[in-house]
Amino acid sequence: MHEKEPNFPANALIDTMTNDFGSPADDDIVREIISGDVNAFEKLLDKYQDHVLRIVARHIPPLHIEDTAQEVFINILHSLPSFRGKSRLDHWMAAVAIKTCYKFWRTYYKNREQPVSSLSINHRLWLEEALSSEAEQSLIEKASQREAGEILESALARLSAEDRMVLELIYLEDYSVKDAARLLGWSVVNVKVRSFRARQKLQKYLCRTLPNRRGTR
């Protein structure tokens, strides 16, 4: 299946990019690849492999980053004939990368034989403090604090691949609903509904890890 061009606005949050991204040379490289020039794809790899790796690293466990990044470039190669230059090449490639990460989690959850282990005592203590805080930060927004990353990872692992990707894009990476929809190839309404429901599921799971929280305070 060929990837549709996401048509991001100029200020879309994709990645920290160098000025040569989206340059006219990209069109030449794409034409060379499509015409069968084997060496041309190496130019694309050299120019964009760091861009792709950064995106993949934000969504995939370290052990699987390299393999997933390779799959991204395979998908890019197969989909390049559908690229018409209506959006910047790096934006289009970001959408391919996000969809490949989503596919990774769908396969991962489908093949997983054992549930994720329960939180450690230290994680429970941190979570209890976070849940009891009077600050107006949501649990997701506390992800930058100590212990939060591992706690959130454990919670995200309980969600579906769809819910996980939506939450990561919108709440952890600050994409707008519109940009997340473009990256995933979903409708804006679908992303809005799923992000709301996924956040409720995440919040519910986190609260369940401390069933006696209210009685200890």
Total domain count:
2
User: With helices defined by DSSP (H or I, 4 residues minimum), what is the helix count?
Assistant: 9
- Overall, the morphology is elongated
Number of E-type strands = 0
What does this structure look like?
- The termini are far apart.
- The protein has two domains: 24-111, Rna Polymerase Sigma Factor, Chain: A (Orthogonal Bundle), CATH 1.10.1740.10; 121-216, Winged helix-like DNA-binding domain superfamily/Winged helix DNA-binding domain (Arc Repressor Mutant, subunit A, Orthogonal Bundle).
- The radius of gyration is 20 Å and the shape is elongated.
- The model is unreliable at 6-19, 114-120 and 212-217 (pLDDT under 50).
- The protein has 217 residues and is mainly α.
- It is 60% helix and 0% strand.
- It is built from nine helices and no strands.
What is the topology?
Blueprint: H1 24-34, H2 38-57, H3 65-79, H4 89-111, H5 121-132, H6 148-156, H7 161-172, H8 177-184, H9 188-208
Record keyword descriptors for this entry.
217 residues, mainly alpha, Rna Polymerase Sigma Factor, Chain: A, Arc Repressor Mutant, subunit A, 2 domains, 9 helices, disordered C terminus
Task: Write a brief caption for the model.
The chain is an all-alpha fold and 217 residues long.
